[in-house]
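Good day; I would like, with your permission, to put a structural problem before you. A protein sequence and the structure tokens that stand for its backbone fold form the material at issue. The record follows directly beneath this note:
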Amino acid sequence: MTTTEWITDIALILIVFRQLREGRLDHKTFLIPLGIVAFVAYSYLDTLPTGGNDLVLIGALMGVGAVLGVAGGVYTRIRTVGEHALIKAGAVSAILWVVGMGARMGFQLWVEHGGGADDVARFSLAHHITSQDAWVTAFVLMAVTEVVTRVATIFLRSRAVTAPRAVPAYEHSA
């Protein structure tokens, strides 16, 4: 792994650790993680491999990313105090985030330094995955999907928490 890859992965993990302390929900809550994955996508996504079962691999890992992201967003506490929304990642949210990020880092380290390259090559051949680019694309899009769905879930939940409530008509008549 390159220094940039280490820094990017650690930055994404630290985002959730930062949210273990309750803090104000603001634009940075959304823009920082989206900015990081936009940089990653720009840096690593050159093509979309479509041969063999490449799209199946990509879709499967994106599905895993979506599940992790939505679950992480659901297990993030959002509450209002006065006019401000506050956010706090719960233990489940933090664990899911670290599992997703850690799985990608672990896979990459295993392939590069742990002797996993031959196993991945055999798996790819047996399952008609055409290139290393398919794996890179799948894992990058998994990360992007996890971040986008987590942020989107938190955004939607925050709107529900901070939306002004309508006063039922029967309360006016009393």
Observations:
- The mean pLDDT is 87.
- Helices lie at 3-18, 27-44, 54-74, 91-113, 117-126, 132-162, 169-172.
- The CA atoms of residues 2 and 83 lie 43 Å apart.
